[in-house]
Design a protein that fits this description.
binds 2-oxoglutaric acid; 12 helices; about 25% helix; binds ligand LKXUNLCO; binds fe (ii) ion; DIOX_N; single chain; globular; Jelly Rolls; four-stranded antiparallel sheet; oxidoreductase; eight-stranded mixed sheet; EC 1.14.11.61
């Protein structure tokens, strides 16, 4: 890698139009992804959005240019940046729950309490084999190790199906500041579709992870329903709770100025439950809804992070909380995470469960078509807890 001098030169205050100018000392070839090189001379410039979003290099391709400074398109306003200065005391973190005694009422109680207070908890001894977790992490690194051209085959523009999507940031077209993350999003429709459409480099490992987590997902939802006095999960409820699954592979490359940007901005998930596998790097922060402070979710080897999504907050009429969370960028190591979003079916209508309203409780949410709800989420930049207002009664 050759040496470059001052990067970037910020042309305009606003990001969409900004062109990043490089000044490069001799020689003028920057080596990037294995098979690609860009020739940059003193007069050359590249358009960041075009390079990252349209050309499919992603933020990983950008990071691999050897930037010394964060491009202005990624600079977030001060109030959205991470102040890692005063972390909450260690005891005040999300619960870590041992699922090996999953028929013990105390375990069920701990889960329901965590879903009410934190909306987040971690589980160990969950029954998903360790090699399945390791394999899907390796597969994630393999997918993002592909060339930009290979990955771009799965982009919105080129993918033969809407159910497979490679992208970067969250909604680049709507965002004032981009997020420092690339992703591959896989909506599970059927074994056959996954076998023919998911990228061969990771599909078996993702399938194993998805199938391997089915038992614990069911168990968690049963416990949570029990806590709402829902004794039987009939066909409709089963569809509302776990009628569809989406698995995202997230990649957060090393960032030149992690303090100025975010990996993922403040949001709540639109799922029923999310089961998240993170590696050992750390960077996920959860809002403590009582103090409003951000709490770090420490990586625990072999654990899975579980969080309540908006669909479950709506169905439980607000009893279980889908809590705001966000991810920092990292200046030293690349990070990956693999969430499984367990959702209602797109065609389901969701609202507070009848059991929640039996005793005269007022419905906090109206009934909404789930696909309308998700489209609303995907139509805007991350905006914290605002999404759920779409379903407010
Ligand atoms: C990426 O960064 C993220 C992602 C998240 C995700 C958190 C979740 O909770 S995901 C769980 C979402 N639930 C489901 O997927 C349920 C089942 N699926 C559906 O209901 C449908 O697939 C659909 C989501 C409603 C989309 O249906 P379709 O009619 O096929 O419409 P499209 O044209 O494909 O999409 C509409 C609109 O949304 C954008 N979009 C769709 N899928 C994704 C995706 N996986 N990632 C990002 N954006 C997506 C798409 O761009 C379309 O907008 P256009 O403007 O392009 O038309 C949390 C945090 C993150 O940082
Ligand atoms: O990477 C993480 O730890 C969390 C990512 C996340 O919140 C999401 O994909 O919805
Ligand atoms: Fe999330």
């Amino acid at each position: 890698m050759y040496k470059t001098t001052p990067i970037p030169f910020l042309k305009h205050a606003y990001r969409n139009l900004t062109v990043l100018h490089y000044q490069v000392t001799k020689p003028t070839i920057l080596t990037m992804a294995p098979s690609i090189s860009i020739s940059i001379t003193n007069s050359n410039s590249i358009n960041i959005r075009d390079f990252v979003v349209n050309k499919g290099h992603g933020v990983k391709g950008l990071a691999e240019l050897g930037l010394k400074t964060l491009p202005c398109q990624y600079i977030h306003p001060p109030q959205e940046r991470f102040d890692t200065g005063t972390p909450e005391a260690h005891h005040n973190s999300i619960p870590l729950i041992d699922m090996s005694r999953c028929n013990d009422p105390e375990v069920a109680e701990a889960i329901c309490k965590a879903a009410q207070k934190w909306g987040f908890f971690q589980i160990v001894n969950h029954g998903v084999p360790m090699h399945v977790l390791e394999d899907v992490k390796d597969a994630t690194h393999r997918f993002f190790g592909l060339s930009a051209d290979e990955k771009k085959k799965y982009s919105k523009e080129q993918s033969v199906t809407n159910n497979v999507r490679y992208g970067t940031s969250f909604t680049p077209a709507c965002e004032k500041a981009l997020e420092w993350k690339d992703y591959l999003s896989l909506l599970f429709v059927s074994d056959d579709e996954a076998a023919s459409q998911w990228p061969p480099i990771c599909r078996n490992q993702v399938m194993e992870y998805m199938k391997g987590s089915e038992i614990i997902v069911k168990k968690l939802l049963e416990m949570l329903m029990n806590g709402l006095n829902v004794k039987e999960i009939d066909e409709t409820k089963e569809s509302n709770l776990m009628g569809s699954k989406r698995i995202n592979l997230n990649y957060y490359p090393i960032c030149p100025n992690p303090d100025l940007t975010v990996g993922v901005g403040r949001h709540s998930d639109v799922s029923t439950l999310t089961i998240l596998l993170q590696d050992d790097i750390g960077g996920l922060y959860v809002r403590n809804t009582e103090t409003m402070k951000w709490i770090h979710v420490p990586p625990v080897s072999g654990s899975l992070v579980v969080n309540v999504g908006d669909a479950l907050q709506i169905m439980s009429n607000g009893k279980y909380k889908s809590v705001e969370h966000r991810v920092s960028a990292n200046g030293i190591r690349n990070r990956i995470s693999v969430p499984i979003f367990v959702n209602p079916k797109a065609s389901d209508i969701i609202g507070p469960l009848p059991e929640m309203l039996q005793s005269g409780e007022k419905p906090l949410y109206k009934h909404v078509l789930y696909s309308d709800y998700v489209k609303h989420f995907f139509r805007k930049a991350h905006d914290g807890k605002a999404t759920i207002e779409f379903a407010r009664a």
